[in-house]
């Protein structure tokens, strides 16, 4: 059900058969899932840590980069792994059959 509208949009933009279409389709599926995952992770970081950083004299940006981002590193790593693994699996799968096809065409007999 979801692939038909994406196909219509890709063909109407004349992106059918291009790398940009693959990027758009993959991003449209992975970005919402990673955002949902990271929202849940950032919700577990206590607001009091940001308040304590502001009492210590840092601004909002300083609290973000000095307190929140180091605490969110495991969540960012998990989201990036979840975003990269399907692409890696597809790449290795396609590469295997591409190499197999090239090797079969190179043999005489």
Query: Which class best fits the helix and strand makeup?
Result: mainly alpha
The count of helical stretches stands at 5
Mean pLDDT: 87
Largest sheet, described in full? none
Radius of gyration: 22 Å
Number of domains: 1
Poorly predicted ranges: none
* Termini Cα gap: 46 Å
Shape: elongated
List keywords for this structure.
single chain; 0% strand; 109 residues; mainly alpha
Walkthrough of the structure:
The chain has 109 residues and is mainly α. The chain has one domain (3-83). The protein has helices at residues 3-12, 19-43, 47-55, 60-71, 73-106. Helix 2 (19-43) runs antiparallel to helix 5 (73-106).
Give a concise summary.
By secondary structure, this protein is mainly α.
Chart the SSEs and their pairings:
Layout: H1 3-12, H2 19-43, H3 47-55, H4 60-71, H5 73-106
Helix pairs in contact: 2-5, 3-4
